[in-house]
Each structure stands twice: as structure tokens, then as C-alpha cells.
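FIELD: query
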Amino acid sequence: MGKYIFRRLLYLIPVVFGVSVLVFTVMHLFTSDPALTILGQHATDADAAALREELGFNLPLVQQYWNFLSGMLQGNFGTSLFTHTPVFNEVMSRFPATIELALFAIIVASVVGVTLGVISAVKQNSIFDYASMTISLMGVSMPIFWLGLIMIVVFSLKLGWFPVSGRIQMGYDPAHVTGLYILDSILTGNTAAFKSAVEHIILPGTALAMYSMAIIARMTRSTMLETLGQDYIRTARAKGIVERLVIVRHALRNAMIPIVTVIGLQMGGLLGGAVLTETVFSWPGVGSYTVESILKSDYPVVQGTVMMMSIIFVLVNLAVDLIYSVLDPRIKYS
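FIELD: result
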């Protein structure tokens, strides 16, 4: 197991290298001049040239890339051109918000998706089966930003059930323990903060969960249908085992490996793909911060956030692989 984990961690090297080349190339070849962005379009050529020299943008691209890569290997992801603070600190201050949103979304997507998939498989070709698959098809088809806007109009502006944006009502911030407002409010017994945090996360979390829920539901249904047709399921039923136990203990447990794979991939995708949701709901996470940085051509921030999210994505997938052996003891890593 130790060798397997070490080998998987070595896979980080080509992944990080490939992502760093791609991000650096895109940011330097297809975006505007950061010196002019900082100084404004009326800046003189001398001022712009001086700022480029100060920031190192006058160096050859290969030299700039090496400076970026060598700094990253030392844990230095650069400094924001506008706030002049380390990118690592900026991202870490916003990371709990993104983690909380992604966790809420993946929990909702997993619970609802697995439930819909199991019931659809058990009640195949029934009205419930058709209805749940229609819902999952809608979840896959609807763009997240469009769904988020519709939810804001209906549930916030028309019905007034939930806040339009933000992470918590001003002045309700719980004492900092983990950075996750819902968990911190529970740990500190702050009921008002808990209620406000839950109200604020329902809309963005649900919008973000829809696509993943649809994928998980469809995967669960197909896997369960295949599992329910196996001989050991018929044997379990022939022994007179209660149908509920046959489905949960025998069928669902053996069907969980591909489902867990999908959930793990979706979790990694949610961490890096919450950009649109955070932007629509003004959620103060890494995604909205990255969008702001792209619009301002803040190269170090964009490069740093993408690199950090890529590393996290790989680590999440490693964790998913390790969960396989827990679900199925026959799987051994060597």
C-alpha cells in the first residue's frame, strides 16, 4: 500500500508539469499586457516598460516559466500584482468557502443520486423510473449558470425563501475553528450563524449538485441493474433473505465501486469547477477569486490557483482509489 501511494504521488510530477506549461502558455500568449492593465491605457511607454522590468515580464518566456516553476517547487506560487500578497495565502483564505460549497454539493448529489438510481433500478420501467431518469437528463442538460439564475429569480426574488448571494449574513460570522461556517457554528453552538449559513448555501449548493446528481443517478441505475441480474443475488433471494437486505447489503455494496469512482471524479470537478456557481451567487471562494484575477490579468494568481486545484484533484482521485480496498477487500495494492 505504501509503495502504491508513493508511486501515485510520483504521478503528480508529469501532471503538475503539463498543467504548468499549459497555464503559463495560455496566460502569456492570449491575455492582455498586465503592465497596461495595472497602469491603465493612458500610461506612457516608459512607465509600462519600467513596470514590466520590475515584475520580470521583460524576460524571455522560457526564463519567466523557469522562475515560475522553480518558485512553485519551493512552495512559492507567486504574489498578486494588485494586492501584493502571496497567492498561497490568498487562496487558503478562500479555500474553506469552496470546500464547504463542494462538500455540500457532493453530499446532496450523492444522497439524491444514489437513491434515485437504486429505486429506478429496482422499479425498472415504472413511472418512477421514467421520472427520475427525466430529472437526471435535465440535470445533465441545464447549464449551471442558467439554473443558478433561475433559482435566484424564483426562490430569492419571487418567493423570498433564500438570500440572493453571499455566504452568511453580515455580523453572523461564527468563531473560526475550521473555516467551514456550518461546521464552526455547530462546534461553537451558534444557532443563528448555523441557520444563516444553511440558508445561504442551499441555492448555490443545489445548483452545483444538479449535474453531479444526474451523473451519479444514471451510473447507479445501470450498475444496479447489472448487479441485480447476478447469480448470487438470485441465490440470496432463494434463501429467503428480506428483499431490502438483498438490495442494500448484497447488490448496492457490490455496485458501489464504479459509483464511488464517479463520486470521486465529481468531487474533484466540483472543487475546480465551482467557478460559475461562485460567480453567479457571489460566493467568496477560490472560483470567483480566479474569475476576478482573469479579468484583471493577474497572472500569478491565475497560475497559482490552477496549479493548486490541479494538485488537489489528483489527491482526491488517489483517495478514491484507496477507498476501493475498503469497499472490496479483494482489491489489493502492491
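FIELD: remark
The chain has a mean pLDDT of 83.
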